[in-house]
Design a protein that fits this description.
With about 350 residues, the protein is of the alpha+beta class. It contains seven helices and eleven strands. The longest helix has about 80 residues.
Length: about 350
């Protein structure tokens, strides 16, 4: 009895009491001074209070419902996707910066190369022109010279002319690879101007588009090289070659088909002849520069197209030259081209 009273008195002294909660959990509230106690406490009216909470062990092991598990999985998945999205965004931004810097470097390199090519052509053209002119003057003044001297001066003239042609072709190839500045062009008129300078050419034209948007000088150079290539390989005794040109319009662009009655080009050589400084089999290395068809391919690519080589119904070669139409939705100063599909031979 005395012990019980002392326990009650001790508990009263420190202000400790048991409180029963709603679900049966027991909470012991101590409202006396909390000295030397490690439990969390709060000071109220100058007195430290501490609360001891006892939770039933069965509530800690209560199984989670399927809905709770699904919600937790969804939250975790969302967090993972959010992190991945941030990582991909940062990597994409870095890639775009690297790509923009790379494009600027390439543009600067192209400008440097363009300046170098024009300077080189100018520096080589002038002395070659002087050499050719002096050789021509020398051949006219050496009236009493022997055949050997005249042969040597003629060789100087022809070599200077060939070097001049090579320089012009190299410059044409360098400028043809750049993006074309398009203007309205009339293909029929361009072909007529070219044919007037090729007397051995018998040109026949079928349907041609009245107007196309292209770089006129580039398009004229490509047509000229295709017609000159046909004339170069003429097999008739009088050197006359028949070429038929027909155009066709597609949703993506235009095609121009050149058919000749020459010897044609072997299938195994049809890709090789478009490479720089390559000639057909059996052709002498001293004829031409080996850049004519390379310029044609570069002109087509600059216009968003391509060129294919097959057999012609006339017995010779068929070149299908493609150029793409410009996109009306492009806001750049240089119109974007609609990519063509491979043209099928007629």
């Amino acid at each position: 009895m005395v012990c019980a009273q002392r326990a009650r008195s001790d508990r009263a002294a420190v202000g400790q009491r048991d409180v029963r909660g709603d679900e049966g959990e027991s909470r012991r509230v101590v409202h006396g001074p909390a000295q030397g106690i490690d439990q969390p406490s709060a000071a109220i009216d100058g007195t430290k209070w501490r609360v001891l909470v006892t939770v039933p062990t069965e509530s800690l092991y209560r199984p989670l419902s399927a809905t709770t598990l699904v919600e937790a999985a969804a939250v975790a998945l969302f967090a993972v996707m959010l992190v991945l999205g941030v990582i991909l965004t940062l990597r994409l931004a870095r890639t775009e910066r690297d790509l923009a810097a790379r494009v600027q470097q390439l543009e600067a390199a192209n400008r440097t190369l363009d300046t170098f090519s024009h300077t080189l052509v100018h520096d080589l053209r002038n002395p070659l022109t002087a050499i050719g002119g002096l050789a021509s003057t020398l051949s006219r003044t050496l009236v009493d010279a022997d055949d050997r001297a005249r042969e040597m001066t003629a060789h100087i003239e022809s070599s200077a002319a060939r070097m001049h042609t090579l320089i012009e072709d190299v410059l044409a190839l360098a400028t043809a690879t750049r993006a074309a500045e398009r203007v309205p062009c009339e293909p029929a008129r361009i072909l007529e101007q070219i044919a007037a300078d090729l007397p051995q050419l018998q040109l026949e034209t079928a349907w041609l588009p009245e107007q196309v948007h292209a770089d006129r000088s580039s398009l004229m150079r490509a047509f000229e090289n295709l017609l000159a290539n046909a004339c170069h390989y003429a097999t008739t005794s009088d050197g006359v070659v028949n070429v038929r040109v027909e155009g066709d319009e597609h949703p993506w662009g235009w095609t121009f088909t050149f058919d000749d009655d020459g010897p044609g080009i072997a299938p195994e050589d049809r890709e090789r002849v478009f490479a720089a400084f390559q000639r057909g089999r059996g052709e002498q290395t001293g004829t031409g520069t080996g850049l004519g068809l390379s310029i044609v391919a570069a002109c087509a690519q600059a216009h968003g197209g391509s060129v294919q080589l097959t057999d012609s119904p006339q017995g010779g070669a068929r070149f299908v030259f493609e150029i793409a139409k410009v996109s009306n939705t492009s806001s750049d100063s240089t119109p974007a081209a609609v990519q063509p599909t491979t043209a099928q031979p007629r």
